[in-house]
Amino acid sequence: MIKEIHDKLLSLTEEELEILSGENSVNKSIYTDDGKFIIDSNKLLPKGELIDIRKHTRFINFPSHNHNYIEFNYVYNGTLTQVIDNKKITLQKGELIFLNQYITHEIEASNENDIIINFIIKPEFFDYIMSFLESENIISKFLLTILYNTDYNKGEYLYFKVSERKEIQNLVEKIIIELYDPSIMSKATIKLLVGLLLVELVKNSQDIEIYSVDNYEKLLIIQSFKYIDESYKMATLSELAQKLKQPDYKLSKLIKKHSSMTFKDLLQEKKLSKAIELLKVGNLTIVEIMQMIGYENPTYFYKIFKEKYGVTPKEYRKTNV
Q: Is 0.90 surpassed by the pTM of this model?
């Protein structure tokens, strides 16, 4: 981290100075004008901005509260102890947690060496991220749905135990630098970095802990999506069911429920997206590509490719390579 920003993160804020001078409760007026303790993004974000960061206030218990935005806590140094639904979670240095806008939580007092970065993100920010992600990145879209679902107002979180993942640590650091030391391109850069961060988190989905109204289902879905992503060439629903120790019919229903697509449809989407990637390389024959993604019948491959993209694989290559 740049020394100047590192020093800012370690320095005492006005609020922390007041606490150390004897203030024994959180000044709620900083966070909300509402009688209930629902933290308002409009009180924390600069006008017109969709994302910003704020160092978490140390030395005092932060009482139970909600917020009208999506929160992302990153442990820059030390630890962070959250209490969610009577469950205590202690995040270690380098770990992070995404909390949707319906979660109720409290935070235990941290000490001088506990430096926590709170990302304040309006839900509209994810409109751009959703469009930024490639269509076949079904795990990312699913994780975003957990955070950005307005169909029901249930608290959910995603806890990523990724302190040893250097790529993720580097991306978070870059985001912090862009927010603390902005340039004329910072807004666009931040959107791209957050998109890349989500992609990296998906690659490490084995490190995710989920809290959700249907937690078990969502864990099964993430495992199913990852199986398709990694084993698309030879993937079958029966093999997936065997791996997850679930009946075929149950997995089939869950996949359709959470993705609005069948297992077959998701598998085909993944294979065709991989075909596009390989076509752009330019040095493989169509037959080789077809075999690499798990298709043996050229007529069928050409048919489904043209149905999806409106052109044959050869026509696509001519105009895109």
A: no
